[in-house]
Amino acid sequence: xxxxxxxxxxxxxxxxxxxxxxxxxxxxxxxxxxxxxxxxxxxxxxxxxxxxxxxxxxxxxxxxxxxxxxxxxxxxxxxxxxxxxxxxxxxxxxxxxxxxxxxxxxxxxxxxxxxxxxxxxxxxxxxxxxxxxxxxxxxxxxxxxxxxxxxxxxxxxxxxxxxxxxxxxxxxxxxxxxxxxxxxxxxxxxxxxxxxxxxxxxxxxxxxxxxxxxxxxxxxxxxxxxxxxxxxxxxxxxxxxxxxxxxxxxxxxxxxxxxxxxxxxxxxxxxxxxxxxx
Length: 278
Hints:
This protein is an alpha/beta fold. It has helices spanning 27-39, 54-65, 80-89, 102-108, 113-129, 146-158, 175-188, 204-213, 235-245, 254-268; strands at 8-11, 44-48, 71-77, 93-99, 133-139, 164-168, 193-197, 218-221. Strand 5 (133-139), helix 6 and strand 6 form a beta-alpha-beta unit.
């Protein structure tokens, strides 16, 4: 087992978090959350999906205009429409997501793996032609083979992507399988891995810590653990565990992070259980 990585936080409260049923943030609420995350020391903020419409794009512009210290980036499918919407907002860093499992490629998209890879290539090159940096998302990676994930990573690396997201999209991993998968992949992957967990079985935080302990560099999190279906790994829990349990130095201000969790929970109509003071 490797030494636990510091765990660079990539907050997706405003993108995957808002995909939870019944949660809709206003533009001003999104700006307030992004500003608070930045003040708390979060260095990467996934702000949303500009192609969703005018209101979403306007909120993205508000956040970009705030000139935060954090890198603020947009989520995109691998298609021209998404990329152009993000470019129109002024984003300089784009996350481009494609399915990697056979289930998503063949059953959801009804396409071939070759088609997906070609779409990704075109999307990355389009973003780069406008001077953008790119990260790549491997959707449903936990139901794909390691070789298919690595194929996607190798293509992404050859095109200049800066990292790849391993998404446990349906939340089926446990800490033991996460440990084995990450130990294998991080030894062979040409890009730093971001681990993106879902909380369907209440294991998102535990799986995220297991991933960091086995070579993953980035942790995908949300304030108050909000997110699609059962939610995502909680920013408060992951940050507190790294600092208080593992003693990992961090830029994260735990007191401010806990306030953000309470703020987001109140806006979302959710209950939140905060980590204890250790």
